[in-house]
Amino acid sequence: MLKKILNRFSVFLIVSSALWACESDNFSSSPSIKLAFSTDTVLFDTVFTTIGSSTRYLKVYNTSKSDVRISSVALAGGSSSVYRINVDGRPGPLVKDIPLRSGDSLFVMVEVTINPTLSDAPLLIPDSIVFVTNSNIQDVKLVAWGQDVYLHNAVTIENDTVFPVNKPHLIYDYLFVDKNATLTIPAGARLHFHNNAQLVVAGTLKVEGTVDMPVIMQADRLEKFYADKGGQWGGVWLSAGSRNNSIAWVDIKNAIIGLMVDTCFTPGTPTLVLSHSKIGNASYVAFLARGARVDVDNCLFYNSAYSCVALTLGGRYRFYHTTIANYWGDYMFRKGPALLLNNYYTYQLVQNGPILVEPRNLEEASFFNSVIYGSISNELGLDYKYNGQPVNASFAYNFTDCILRVPSSVNLNESEHFLRVKRDDPKFKDIAKWRFELDTLSPAKDIGDVSIANSFPIDLNGINRLTDGKPDLGAFERIE
Prior knowledge:
Layout (H helix, E strand, L loop, with lengths): L1 H23 L11 E2 L3 E3 L3 E2 L7 E6 L6 E8 L7 E5 L2 E2 L2 E7 L4 E8 L10 E11 L2 E12 L2 E8 L3 E2 L6 E9 L4 E5 L3 E4 L4 E4 L2 E5 L6 E5 L15 E4 L6 E4 L1 E4 L3 E5 L10 E4 L2 E5 L2 E6 L2 E5 L2 E5 L2 E6 L2 E6 L2 E4 L12 E4 L1 E4 L8 E4 L2 E7 L2 E4 L5 E4 L1 E2 L2 E2 L4 E10 L13 E5 L5 E3 L4 E4 L11 H6 L25
Parallel strand pairs: 2-11, 3-11, 12-14, 13-15, 14-16, 14-17, 15-18, 16-19, 17-20, 18-21, 19-22, 20-23, 21-24, 22-25, 23-26, 24-27, 25-28, 26-29, 27-30, 28-31, 29-32, 30-35, 31-36, 32-37, 35-40, 36-40, 40-41
Antiparallel strand pairs: 1-4, 4-9, 5-8, 5-10, 6-7, 6-9, 10-11, 33-34, 38-39, 42-43
């Protein structure tokens, strides 16, 4: 009996295996079957030479009613191609014998690394992925722009240096300006920073952008996905003792701390004069000053995860025709006000020891013809108390001819700190697109102090705010 059962089971296995084999090998050989693709061109944004790109995805579909076997998927450029492919987990440049069931799909992942092109201008680097199915040949184009760069990998500048502007500068790890050196960055220069990289200045930094040729400082990922992602690089740090710095017409974006200015050791001299610049989309603070002396005019500080402007550890600061606008929150909840003022720090001499408070005089934090606004009800943080007690240090601040978002509990008639200050929504043009110019119905129009505007007549767009004799508040003059 057992023998009969085993014989019948053996017959069943043989028949089932034969049927399964017939079914599994039922691939159509018709050349009329064509694959479908999610795109006809895989396009990469500008890729810096020697630096790999992000991964692009191509999806391949079998829309026919028959199973097919793709004979090969290959890079047209073969093993010498600057591109790399991976077909459903199998690396290229050539992958053979790929089954694709009816109605099914597979992924092809594409990356590119471009060798130096020996050209200042970006060069088009083409290739294609070739699919052969039943003698039917199809292809998907690959397109990237390769850009040569000046590479600075953990470099120290010891002598006065002027950056060339014919091609971008790529900073890995850090670029350090020694205490006796001056780095000059001319108009039109482009600085790109790899993950966590910083520009650290112990000496002097001169940024000489113009309205038509600003200096750009941003991360090295140029794909559209990264265009609005903060925290991609460390930022610019003017370290303690750095002196005579001047920055004009610069666009610093997507850093952790956009620009940090440390303690000034030169009495009576500003650590930094900052004008006509945009700093924002920072994963911590756009502009952080610690016991420094800074003069600012016609600047925009925007969208940061903590504060746009944090003036800490005392110091002396003057802001003219400045816009501070914090609407951070697309992918992380904001933790601080648009503007923070502070006059102390805490420390411990030994681990787990008592917390000690070190007062630092805030000699002056003055804002003239400016707008400080954002998405929370109080955009002004006043940090001058520790454990509920005022710190024994000066805390001098004032706003004159400004729009300031503060709750109704703040008395704007207190003349020691506020003069002609309004709470009204300034009505920015389009906060979702980082457009912080004034809309046509903005209450910030035409109410600026002309005497201040006389000293700073050109706005952040290069427009003369004195044309109609009635300057607007903030960094942008509204032109109807």
